[in-house]
Amino acid sequence: MTRAQLEIFLGVVLATLAVAVLIYMGFTEEGRMVEWTRAQQAESIEVGGELFDINCTGCHGPNGQGIPGLAPALNDSHFFNGRVQEVGWQGSLQDYVISTVSTGRLLSTRPEYVGGGKPAMPAWSDRYGGPLRDDQIRDISSFVLNWEATATGQVEIAQLATPTPSAEEAADPVARGQQVFVSSGCNACHTISAISTGTVGPNLTQIGEVAATREEGVSAEDYIHTSIVNPNAHMVEGFPPNVMPQNYEDILSDQQLDDVVAFLLAQE
């Protein structure tokens, strides 16, 4: 075989292999794209779960079960089967979630939540003054939509265990107040160093010290208590009115209010 014949032979072999590879890739492309999409979706759900835990569990609960008087359930069959029809939304449920999280909700469509129709949910998108990017909000929507199987009864959700406070914690109003602060959703909107990272409301890391300087003639204890039961009474510059729920006086007992005040007074 001459050199020219060898080159022609090798060229034909390589061309045949190239065609075979292209044909193989063509036949497997759909499967590869499905797998890539699945991997991307899984990553989005994982990231969204972390963001939901930081920003949303305070109001909607760690399993999306909602908190009575504060925020509705998202891990709920009605949310998946009837919510968009209920509000007259023309797009998909994911678009509805993204829109609601992005812009917030000035008026509650469910009067039983957040003070009977008062401004309910802050805007979370950085385009509307919130702390989250569009891709982060999309990840949260992916995480919420991932509950469809549990919400519609296809699988059973594993409930998180409720921690039992120790006797020492149960006797300490500051410890009790911290539990109420977290369970009532305050940590979702307010930062307290080493406890929460919310940015919707003012930073409360040193509120026990700062509160005494906010209003002349008003003690730190009275300032904090009033700010909980009547949030618009003492506005902090840079934060708009009507964002914080107005009904904590109704949903918290006198003891719980006193405990939260004690906890916040201890933040110095």
Helices, strands, pairings?
Blueprint: H1 3-55, H2 57-60, H3 77-81, H4 83-87, H5 93-103, H6 114-117, H7 134-145, H8 148-151, H9 167-171, H10 173-183, E1 191-192, E2 196-197, H11 207-214, H12 220-229, H13 248-251, H14 254-265
Antiparallel strand pairs: 1-2
Helix pairs in contact: 1-7, 5-7, 10-14, 11-12, 12-14
Mind explaining what this structure looks like?
By secondary structure, this protein is mainly α. The chain folds into 2 domains: 45-158, Cytochrome c-like domain (Cytochrome Bc1 Complex, Chain D, domain 2, Orthogonal Bundle); 163-268, Orthogonal Bundle (Cytochrome Bc1 Complex, Chain D, domain 2). The protein has helices at 3-55, 57-60, 77-81, 83-87, 93-103, 114-117, 134-145, 148-151, 167-171, 173-183, 207-214, 220-229, 248-251, 254-265; strands spanning 191-192, 196-197. A two-stranded antiparallel ribbon has the order 1-2. A hairpin with a 3-residue loop joins strand 1 (191-192) and strand 2. The longest helix has 53 residues, at 3-55. The radius of gyration is 26 Å and the shape is elongated. It starts with a helix and ends with a helix. 26% of the residues are buried.
Short description:
With 268 residues, the chain is mainly alpha-helical. It contains 14 helices and two strands.
